[in-house]
Design goal:
7 helices, 4-stranded mixed beta sheet, Aspartate Aminotransferase, domain 1, 5-stranded mixed beta sheet, 273 residues, alpha+beta
Length: 273
């Protein structure tokens, strides 16, 4: 993270640094800013619910609503909510799973423990991610707005996990966290709103000298010093790639014509000295 500039604000797919520069964000908070840094009106939704002062974890009827939204967005699965990503990781380890290194910087993974399968889910990928447990990276920037796993209520293994979860009292979340996750779950199935800029992603090749592209996701081919040379020179062009070696980056949902030219040039350059 020390490779990132200090950021004073974020908007859409841009980060504005204290150094006076505007950066094009291809890291996107490990994909949590998949819809940008104000995903589909989230800031306004939160602003409308902040005035009651319900920041602390307290019981709230929105829990039932967001549960129904999760079941609708992911048919066959029941959502289980956590205050943050480390709580999700702790629960998976309690069930015996060995997580990959940097699990949230990977494009996808599937792990097994005791006959139970857990898989990473990301928006915008072709095909259906399956497993007794889905670990979604929702388009919800910031780890403080809550996290969730999805447990199959159709497989015997998933039903067994739900029975075990329901024998323990769920960890309380802030109503603000439920509201944020509920807004994102509600908009998952809605058509994308029209935005300024262009989206020529379908016309881009799948293979570049430094990356393999899958949809909007960019999987680096370089590692170690080669990758950090690439990261440094992209930053000099005011483009932010994933600051972790081997971590995926993402193309923006939309960008200006000039920014797409810059992206194409960066992806087409191996950045060798």
């Amino acid at each position: 993270m020390y490779r990132l500039p200090s950021i004073r604000r974020a908007r859409n797919f841009h980060l504005y640094g204290y150094d006076g520069n505007r950066y094009l964000d291809l890291w996107q908070n490990q994909g949590r800013a998949f819809w940008g840094h104000n995903p589909r009106g989230l800031s306004q939704v939160l602003k409308n619910h902040i005035s009651p002062g319900l920041y602390a974890p307290t019981p709230h009827p929105f829990f039932q609503r967001v549960t129904k939204l999760g079941i609708k967005a992911f048919p066959g699965y029941t959502p289980w909510f956590f205050p943050n990503v480390p709580s999700v990781e702790s629960q998976l380890r309690d069930w015996g799973f060995i997580l990959p290194a940097d699990p949230w910087d990977s494009l996808e993974w599937e792990i097994r423990a005791g006959g139970i399968t857990a898989s990473l889910w990301r928006p915008g990928l072709d095909g259906v991610t399956q497993g007794d447990i889905l670990c979604p990276i929702l388009p919800l920037p910031g780890a403080f707005l809550g996290a969730m796993i999805l447990v199959s209520h159709q497989s015997p293994e998933g039903k067994g996990l739900l029975d075990r979860l329901q024998t323990h009292s769920t960890e309380l979340l802030s109503p603000i966290q439920y509201i944020a996750m509920g807004h994102i779950l509600k908009t998952l199935g809605e058509p994308a709103p029209k935005k300024e800029g262009e989206n020529p992603i379908a016309c881009l090749p799948e293979n570049f000298p430094g990356f393999h592209r899958r949809g909007r996701y960019l999987i680096p081919r370089f590692h170690g010093q080669e990758y950090f040379t690439l990261f440094k020179k992209a930053r000099q062009e005011k483009v932010i790639l994933n600051p972790r070696d081997g971590g995926i980056s993402l193309l923006p949902e939309r960008a200006s014509k000039g920014e797409w030219s810059l992206i194409s040039r960066i992806l087409g350059d191996t950045f060798h000295e």
